[in-house]
Design brief:
This protein is of the alpha/beta class. The chain has a single domain, classed as Immunoglobulins (Immunoglobulin-like), CATH 2.60.40. Helix content is 18%, strand content 51%. The longest helix has 18 residues.
Length: 100
């Protein structure tokens, strides 16, 4: 018995969708400030290959971060300012950091 191509594609699309529903990801957010308390503006925050820029208040938000131990990097002009390990174990994680 041969399945028409559209049914085969429908089955494949359904399997891919179900697989993505079970993948656990989180949002990592927070604020990056300087030692004097001023916001670190336009600093890149990277977690698990995903990145975000800080806004004028120093706030960032990285979406789609997989659960588990992940490396969080804070970069400016491609220079790593800080690198640390965060444990992503909930749907939303907040991590604030102060730069020298």
């Amino acid at each position: 018995m041969r399945l028409p191509i559209h049914r085969l594609l429908l089955v494949l699309a359904t399997l891919l969708l179900v697989g993505n529903l079970y993948a656990q990801t989180a949002v990592v957010s927070g604020a990056i400030t300087h030692r004097d308390g001023s916001p670190a503006v336009n600093v890149t925050v990277s977690v698990a290959g995903r990145a975000s820029l800080t806004d004028v208040r120093g706030k960032y938000r990285v979406l789609g971060v997989p659960f588990g131990r992940q490396t969080l990097r804070i970069l400016q002009n491609k220079k790593v300012l800080r690198e640390l390990v965060v444990n992503v174990n909930a749907a939303a994680i907040t991590h604030n950091e102060t730069l020298p």
